[in-house]
Description:
The chain is an alpha/beta fold. It has one domain (8-191): Rossmann fold (3-Layer(aba) Sandwich). Helices cover 44% and strands 21% of the residues. The chain has a 5-stranded parallel sheet with strand order 2-7-1-8-9, sandwiched between helices. The longest helix is centred in the C-terminal third of the chain and has 16 residues, at 172-187. The model has no long low-confidence stretch (mean pLDDT 90).
Amino acid sequence: xxxxxxxxxIVSSPSGAGKTTLCHRLLEEFTDARFSVSHTTRxxxxxxxxxxxxxxxxxxxxxxxxxxxxFIEWAHVHGNRYGTAHAEIRAAxxxxxxxxxxxDYQGAAQIKxxxxxxxxxxxxxxxxxxxxxxxxxxxxxxPESLERRFRAAVDEISHHAEFDYLLVNxxxxxxxxxxxxxxxxxxxxxxxxxxxxERLLPGAPR
Length: 206
């Protein structure tokens, strides 16, 4: 990895807008970045792998972690709980890896309060009609849960001003190109490359 202070990259979106697909592609390309695996009380979906997509725990185990102050952030989302453990950032920092967070806007706000230099990206669907179509195409929602997720999506979109970047996922390849451009640009931001310049000045340690 090129020398820079690690980037904490938060990627959020309404359910169905495509943030997880984009995050997976980013991590496939940038092997020097690490996915922050969240804890959740929801059951695994088809194709999800424990420890890779989420740490799946029951409500009692999650509550114990809350009592132990093990989380940077945690929240109730769609009737389940999700949290980011302090251990995820500590491990990545020790290896000087960038960290990618796939979390909702509540978690993003909490991480930004703890780590103001974190970079927050909000992924938008091209339209609400397309978002509904994507949710329906999953085949995992009842009519009631679909409406609940759709109403929640509108509420989540209303928090767009809390993010540093807005990325419309109208075409997954174009959206991915924009996301990778954000990461590359953030890696060379002055505050992350300052040491490279300072080492070139007279009197700097060699």
